[in-house]
Design brief:
CATH class of one domain in chain A: Alpha Beta
Distance between the termini of chain A: 81 Å
CATH topology of one domain in chain A: Nucleotidyltransferase, domain 5
Distance between the termini of chain B: 101 Å
Order of helices and strands of chain A: HEEEEHEEHEHEE
Structural class of chain B: alpha/beta
Number of helices of chain B: 5
Helix content of chain B: 25-40%
Largest sheet of chain A: 5 strands, mixed
Shape of chain B: elongated
Oligomer: heterodimer
Radius of gyration of chain A: 26 Å
Number of domains of chain B: 1
Number of helices of chain A: 4
Strand order of the largest sheet of chain B: 5-4-3-6-7
Largest interface: A-B, 58 and 55 residues
Strand content of chain A: 15-25%
Number of strands of chain A: 9
CATH architecture of one domain in chain A: 2-Layer Sandwich
Structural class of chain A: alpha/beta
Order of helices and strands of chain B: HEEEEEHEHHHE
Chain lengths: ~160, ~210
């Protein structure tokens, strides 16, 4: 047996996987920085309409979210097809909107309580009735700054 | 005495698996969210103490019926034409030259039967309970667009910059405060030239 055995032909050298953790960590940090935690799972259909004259909601801690729309497939049987309001993780009646906003406002720091915005995330196929009801409730508790959350896009795509 | 070996090397082969696990956890629990939308102020619930008398010619009425048709100043209109109509109304400047209400930067037709000046001009938006939300947002978008177009025009004339661009820079918390102070003045000046007066009456049966 010779000391310098010939390498077998056709045997590819193994690809080094030493840098794999680095690559995956890089991806991990990318996702950690650009995403935000989901705060509530949606119980209603929530396809937002498009608009192009929009402003960004900059500070997340100054926003109260209200969702509205038709209940999703699994809830249609129990709650019907009519648009419903979702506050946090459950369905709510119109009358509960005011107390919800007040409760949310109370959890925020004192100096932010006057600059809160209410973001209305309403499904584009909902009717205005439910939006008018929410707006009326918001006026009652003096939460006057609202933001109709939309996707960025041509507004005329909505009505086709 | 045998020489002591260094600490045994830790096997890093499973590092990739751990990192993948974390990556998948973050992929599942987070969302890429960019919240943006149309900012609006609701009217306070208490009516103002003094009744304000507004001349009919200073009000631009827009009504949306339940099938999404627009009635603008008592006439049917297509959604595509709404922005131009709103701009023509806001920019009209009908007050006669020399009067205190005269608008010297308006470029409209100066029709005496339309709005006096942009400070007086009010857009009133009414909708039915059955109106689709998407139609309402489109109309809101067009009306805000009309204001933004006019503000951009004045902003370009005075500061050579678009108003919307200045405003978003002003609202961005990452902008240094020295720049913000400078922008604040400009933004407020433009907002005074074309104040956004968009009233929403309570829903009525049209």
């Amino acid at each position: 047996m010779s000391k310098f055995a010939k390498k077998k032909d056709g045997d590819l050298p193994a690809v080094s996987t030493a840098s794999l953790p680095d690559i995956v960590f890089m991806l991990l940090f990318f996702f950690m920085t650009v995403t935000t935690m989901k705060d509530s799972s949606l119980l209603v259909e929530n396809v937002l309409p498009n608009a192009d004259q929009i402003k960004k909601l900059e500070k997340k801690d100054r926003v109260i979210y209200i969702y509205a729309g038709k209940p999703t497939q699994e809830y249609v049987k129990t709650f019907g097809e009519e648009p419903k309001i979702q506050l946090n993780d459950k369905f709510a009646n119109v009358s509960e909107v005011g107390s919800y906003v007040l409760a949310e406002r109370a959890t925020k720091p004192q100096e932010l309580q006057n600059v809160l915005t209410t973001a209305l995330k309403v499904d584009k196929n909902a009717s205005m009735g439910i939006v008018m009801d929410i707006k009326q409730e918001l006026r009652k508790v003096n939460a006057l700054k609202v933001n109709y959350t939309t996707y960025e896009g041509n507004a005329f795509n909505n009505i086709q | 005495m045998p020489r002591r070996k260094g600490a045994p090397e830790v096997n890093a082969g499973s590092m990739a698996d751990i990192a993948f696990l974390l990556l998948i956890f973050f992929l599942v629990t987070t969302t890429i969210e960019t919240d943006a939308g149309l900012d609006r102020m609701l009217p306070p619930i208490e009516p103002p103490d003094t009744d304000v008398v507004i001349k009919q010619k200073n009000i631009f009425t827009v009504s949306i019926n339940k099938s999404g048709q627009l009635l603008v100043e008592e006439e049917l209109m297509n959604l595509e034409d709404l922005r131009d109509a709103a701009i023509a109304f806001l920019d009209n400047g009908g007050a006669p030259a020399g009067s205190p209400e005269y608008c010297n930067y308006c470029q409209g037709k100066r029709d005496a039967s339309s709005s006096d000046n942009p400070q007086k001009a009010i857009i009133s938006l009414k909708n039915d309970r059955e109106t689709a939300y998407k139609t309402y947002i489109t109309v809101q978008n067009e009306l805000v667009g009309a204001y933004n177009d006019l503000r951009n025009r004045e902003s370009r004339r005075l500061y050579n910059r678009d108003f919307t661009e200045m405003e978003s820079e002003y609202l961005n918390p990452e902008t240094p405060s020295s720049v913000r102070d400078e922008l604040k003045e400009k933004v407020q000046r433009i907002q005074e030239l074309f104040p956004q007066k968009l009233s929403e009456a309570e829903t009525s049966k049209i």
